[in-house]
Specification:
Keywords: Repeat, Signal. The chain is mainly beta. It contains three helices and 23 strands. β3 and β4 form a beta hairpin.
């Protein structure tokens, strides 16, 4: 029997079993599970009261506390994470701000001279990790003044949306043993992959996801260590210099993403808090060149 058909039958049996045992409680559980709020009713002036991020294929993207973390609703927090399917061309932001004359603008960079996108405007992304910034302004005129003064950071609120464009696996292809479902007694025993090692390091170099598959081409935040890692196309943890989405990162011999000043060979480099290498700028009074190395 086709795997998808098996899974569909199993799910219907599960729902029927729970419904027959406690229909009212089951209904309450399911409505709560799928009522993901896209609004923030306690928003003050200048804060987002609604936010929805969609792919260019018009699929809504969930907000998370990190790429492989927990789902989040819109709150007064100002940083979120989303995963965009690598097959998608890009995304668009749909947002509303509390306050009568306030306006919302979207940027692909946190530079003070970044070009603004309108709400609902589609933006293209390359594979890998990047970010967009949603800024609110007290009025259209306030935004124009900030733009004219080449400081679009002069706004009311700034929201950072971290974007990881990567492969999204189909989790609906697991085998289901329908013989383990007994709707007469109410007993249910479904074992999708009991031998899989999930949500943990398999060895020093590989990390398995919730389905027991190795993470690939994706950043990983390990909550146990509080560190960031990058898993490559073969699933192996990256070390040394890494170019991802046209930006350079440095990961130690233990795979941990580095920040701050580092010494590589005989040259010093500076890595921002998000791990990206600084170049053609001045950090702490020290100038770094186009290659990121400190010019002494």
């Amino acid at each position: 029997m086709n795997k998808r058909i098996k899974l569909t039958i199993a799910c219907l049996l599960l729902i029927g079993t729970f419904s027959s045992i406690c229909p009212e409680d089951f209904f309450n559980i399911t409505t709560k599970a799928y009522a993901a709020a896209a609004t923030y009713s306690l928003a003050n002036n200048g804060e987002l009261k609604s936010l929805e991020i969609k792919s260019t294929e018009n699929k809504s993207l969930d907000l998370y506390d990190y790429y492989n973390g927990q789902k989040k609703n819109l709150t007064d927090e100002k940083e979120y994470y989303i995963t965009l399917d690598e097959k998608s061309n890009g995304l668009k932001v749909l947002a509303e701000c509390e306050g009568d004359d306030y306006v919302v603008k979207v940027f692909e960079s946190d530079k003070k001279t970044a070009i603004a996108h309108e709400v609902g405007e589609e933006m293209s992304f390359l594979k890998g990790m990047s970010a967009i910034y949603i800024r609110t302004y007290i009025s259209k005129e306030a935004f124009e003044r900030a733009k004219d003064k080449e400081d679009i950071s002069n706004c009311v609120k700034t929201y950072k949306i971290n974007v990881n464009k990567a492969e999204i696996k189909d989790t609906n292809t697991n085998e289901v043993n329908t013989n383990e479902l007994n709707t007469n007694t109410g007993s249910i025993s479904v074992d999708f992959n009991k031998d899989a090692i999930t949500n943990q390091w398999v060895n020093k170099w590989q990390y398995n996801d919730a389905s027991g598959n190795p993470l690939k081409n994706v950043w990983l935040y390990d909550k146990n260590s509080g560190k960031n890692y990058y898993l490559q196309a073969d699933g192996a943890m990256a070390t040394g210099w890494l170019k991802n989405n046209r930006k350079w990162y440095y990961l130690g011999s233990d795979g941990v993403m580095k920040t701050g000043w580092i010494l590589d060979g005989s040259k010093y480099y500076y890595l921002y808090n998000d791990g990206t290498m600084a170049y053609n700028t001045v950090i702490d009074g020290f100038k770094v060149g186009n290659d990121g190395a400190w010019i002494n």
